[in-house]
Every structure is written in C-alpha cells, then in structure tokens.
Amino acid sequence: MKKTVKILAIVLLSIMMLFVTVQPVSYARDASEIINEATKEPTDKKADTSGLNNVAQNVINIIWIISIIVAIVVVMVIGIQFIVGGTQQKAEYKKALMPVAVGVGLVVFGTSIVKFLFSMNG
Prior knowledge:
This protein is an all-alpha fold and 122 residues long.
C-alpha cells in the first residue's frame, strides 16, 4: 500500500511539474523578422487567448476531479483497512494517511490557486 501511495504521489507531482515547467516558444525565420516586429508601432489589439484559456481550465478541472476521486478511493481503502486491521496495523495505517492528506491538500490548493489566476486573467 505504501508503494502504491508513493507511486501515485510521484505521478501526480510529475504531471503538476510538467504543466509548471512548460514554457511557450516562438520561432522566427531570421533575425530581421524579430527586429521588424520589435520596431513596429504597438497596436491596441490583444491576442485572442480565450480558446487556450478554455482548454487550460478544462485540463485543470480534469486533473482536479481525477485527483479527488483517487484521493477518496485511497482514503476509503485505508479506512477499511484501519477498521478491519489489528492494533499494530492501525498505527501503520495512521502513518499512511498523513501523506495522502498532504497530497490531497497540495492538489486541491494548487488547482484552486491556478483557477484563481485564470479567473483574474479573464
């Protein structure tokens, strides 16, 4: 059980780190194109990012829902094992519950912060 919780935590953290570390990249044909774009007169038009925001919010919502479902299942399994287990096993299950609680807190608060930032953006 400990191994499963560790693997699940590592996978969730890896997915979260992937979304945090991905940087937008743009390519230009040559240096003169970059200079021409930089010297242009600024316009008041903003790029339409509503489609990208919708996709990002959908991905965040899906990650949040999946993580909550997994957390509920893990807590249920640990709870049933706690009820059925003996005295020594109950101490182990209490120890196993702490990383789950921390992981759930990180996922819930992390996605809540990202949702808040997206709502501020528009």
